[in-house]
Fold these 2 entries.
Entry 1:
Amino acid sequence: MKLQIAILTFIVSASVQAGDGTPTDGKIADEAKTPSRIVRSAEWPDFIGGTISVEQSLTRNSKGQYVYRYDDQTEATKQYHEASCADIGMNPAKGESITVGPGSAAWHCSSIESNSASDAKSTDYVIAYAPNGQVSAGQNFISYGTVRFNSSVSGNIQGSVQIDNGRCHTFYSEYYPPNTVGNHTARILCFAHAPQTMNTLMEGCVPRACASDRGSIRAY
């Protein structure tokens, strides 16, 4: 809790720009110098019972998608990303993530254990856990999708979390060395428009294994 409060103080002192409660594309700061970068802001928990608007700097890739990278962020955003992951006992994921859908935003977290030596008998695997639960209709909510994985070879872990037939959707990709055991969790923000049941999907892959899981979130 001390870490979260300290980070909240840092964010406020850094004057993180206020938003309207949902992520929005900001103005490009200098089109002549950075035409491929935008800023989005979203309301997130401040760890003391309220919310705070936090910015994410996104860079356009060759496919025209806007990509989040931890290393590209301001110190205030890095601090919030760290706090968001520490809240669930993890660290900020250092790969790339893409989040799409109106009112959608995400933080990606990881916890990694690298084996000291290769085990020829070890089995590569991925276990997926889709978001589930109940939320209030007419407001934003946060859901969690997680994969547990073991990869004996180097390469990327890739996957995605989808809510309500992909209306809120976040994709991630991160490189890991061989003989890595770990977890990857996506913390995704979405909006429940009305009382309904929204389907969810969690997918994940390492070079030699994949898994998926389906769930549901009920808005009441």
Entry 2:
Amino acid sequence: MTTRADDERFMARAIEVSCRHTGLTDTNPSVGCVLVKDGEIIAEAVTAIGGRPHAERQALEFAGEAARGATAYVTLEPCSHFGKTPPCANALVDFGVARVVVAVDDPDERVSGRGYQILRDAGIVVETGLLRAEGERVLAGYLTRKVKNRPHVILKLAVSSDGMIGRVGEGQVAITGPESRQAVHELRARCDAILVGIGTAVADDPELTVRIAGLEHRSPVRIVLDRRLELPLGSKLVRTAGDVGVVVVRIASNAELPPSALPGISPTGGEIGWALASSYVSLSASNAKNASEHIASKSSAKLGRSANRESISPPVGEMPGRAEGGSHTQKRTQLETSGVEVLETPTLQSLLTILANRGMSELLVEGGAHVAKSFLEAGLVDRILLFESPIIIGAGGLESPLHRADIPQEFTFVGETTYGPDRCFEFERPL
């Protein structure tokens, strides 16, 4: 007889297995499935790279006839709809599984409750909600996109011991140590996009790519909030737009925007399609994950018309710094010629809706202070990663928009991780 402790142990294993392909399964969630018989694991699988085949079908095929009478531990409700492959719920029935234990219900209207019904109608014992919180954390990107029609938003801040995020007029300042920076690059590799404001883009002239050997191809799409289209043509972002996607977002009032600037709708009225990997970020999981497993590339998920263009070098002498003069139309043309997509939308919420409609599940917000504050005030942050460093900035420092002592009360403390001399505090908002 299986005990509660046994069930939790096997589900924990399924959750662990599901993390193997986080960020590599296109718009599908990375699901883990463990088959157990007579107290022993007989097969386990994770959603395949690219999203198919699903975890349950792979595990069942691995087990073969041994699956008959087994218990399946699955991190997400088995699918019940016919897509490119038959439903996993039907496969569990066909292979003779006796019991199915699930961590998280699927909010997808094509599945929600229907997968369970197929199983129960076939006489299979179904139990749900085991290690639900842990399962939801792993599936946060997928669940947020399905429930809220926006990506799961992670706000990352690096703060000095005296509460500063940098120095006035000094551009990029290294606040955290190499161990923290390594963790952040792993974090970027698991996200679909990374977002900064124009102030950070100009002051720091960042690349915002993944700089870990073997993971460079996992760099997220770079997004810059830039109302006045001030991103310099000579910036690293523009110069590398042909290699890794860049989107400049002009958030303006409805009166300023053309009718085509509607969330998720193209000028011709069709939904914009963009297949990007869904992903969940757990720093502890990132450290445990071998980099060699990150083998799927985001380079195939470029941005519409700018996807295959080479970056065009700016005029000689045009170096990073705020762009001067010229109309929005002229600057937009220059950016687009350089391979940058320019997007216009009225609010941060509408921007996130567009990203969700493009299949994006994880957005990392890295800076600066104004952008962080805007996302927090709009209630659009789901997870906070607050890196605290022992260094002191002192006079001339830029005050952090957020400190550990004033985390919004709707967030709960998840845990603390040490990276060299730094500490990272994680907080999350319930889904």
